[in-house]
Amino acid sequence: MKEETDADVEVGRLLVIAESEPQEVDYIYGSTHYLKLFSECTLKPGSVPRLPYEPDPNEVAVEWIPIESLSQEPVIPNIANVLTKAINTGETMYFEDNGHAARKLNPK
């Protein structure tokens, strides 16, 4: 979280495990097998999310949004529904990223 948003957070429970297998998403992510872990996070008092001093060249903005707004935002991988379900049920959820959301933004 610090690397991507320069924010200081309290990390809570693991919500979603998302996996990207190379044979499914090679065009989008390359031949690396990705395992992405999403945890519940709470901003520490006084911390404000922003672009880091030396952002990744593909980063253009940082926004901390309410979870209720997540389904209206472009999220890659497309875990908005799974993330909301994990928060509401208290279960850790698994999500297999097939690259559909990324392909919409970067078609062949």
Q: What order do the helices and strands come in, and which of them pair?
A:
Blueprint: H1 2-5, E1 9-20, H2 22-29, E2 34-43, H3 80-89, E3 93-96, H4 100-105
Parallel strand pairs: 1-3
Antiparallel strand pairs: 1-2
Spell out the key features of this protein.
single chain; 108 residues; alpha+beta; three-stranded mixed beta sheet; 4 helices; 24% strand; globular
Give the strand tally. 3
Q: Give the low-confidence spans.
A: none
Which term fits the overall shape?
Answer: globular
Helix content, binned percent: 25-40%
| Helix-strand sequence | HEHEHEH
Helix/strand/pairing category: alpha+beta
Counting DSSP H or I runs of 4 or more residues, the number of helices is 4
- What is the terminal-to-terminal distance? 30 Å
Account of the 3D structure:
A three-stranded mixed β-sheet has the order 2-1-3. The chain has 108 residues and is an alpha+beta fold. The longest helix has 10 residues, at 80-89. The protein has one domain. Helices cover 26% and strands 24% of the residues. It starts with a helix and ends with a helix. The protein has helices at residues 2-5, 22-29, 80-89, 100-105; strands at 9-20, 34-43, 93-96. The model has no long low-confidence stretch (mean pLDDT 82).
What's this, in brief?
The chain has helices at 2-5, 22-29, 80-89, 100-105; strands at 9-20, 34-43, 93-96. The chain has 108 residues and is α+β, with helices and mostly antiparallel strands.
